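Friendly challenge for the regulars: who can give me the structure tokens for this chain first? No prize, just bragging rights.
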Amino acid sequence: RPGMLGSAVIGGKVTEMLDTAWWLRQAGEDWFGGSAGESPGAGRRVLVVEDSAFFRSLVVPALGAAGYAVTAVADAREALRLRDAGAMFDAVISDIAMPGMDGFALATALREGGAWRDLPLIALTGRAEPADIERGRDAGFTDYVAKFDRAALLESLRQCLAAPVAALTSGEA
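First reply, four minutes later:
Bragging rights claimed.
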């Protein structure tokens, strides 16, 4: 239903989760800082790779509200199928812990070649320990963002899209 993300059991009770980004857009199109033409993501296409429908329902509206055109897939194999079919994006945001092919393997596969080799890759994860971040960088992720930090995700995406990819992957940005 529009305006609802779904439900969760909290404290033993079923609780409906509101899609606050949807409700804020109903209050006014410029709620997120200007008209769609002024949005930071205007004209930018982003692929979100996330196995959890719950997290997809949080991330996709937040990116859409910032003006990004968002495509979401449930696993890394779907992302690779899109790449192989010729789909084009400006950045890829991927979960790390996914069944089958995880985010590290996806990043490695994307960096090995193909049309998406030089795209900014942002890891979206619940695990942001230094060892995890280092492993992510080694696999080819441009940046590493905690799942629940919407502001950090939007800022990371803005920075990644503003900087040359070579600078991002070498740590110069």
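Helices lie at 20-27, 53-65, 76-84, 103-112, 130-139, 150-162, 165-169. The beta strands are 4-10, 13-18, 45-49, 69-73, 91-95, 121-125, 143-146. Your move, everyone else.
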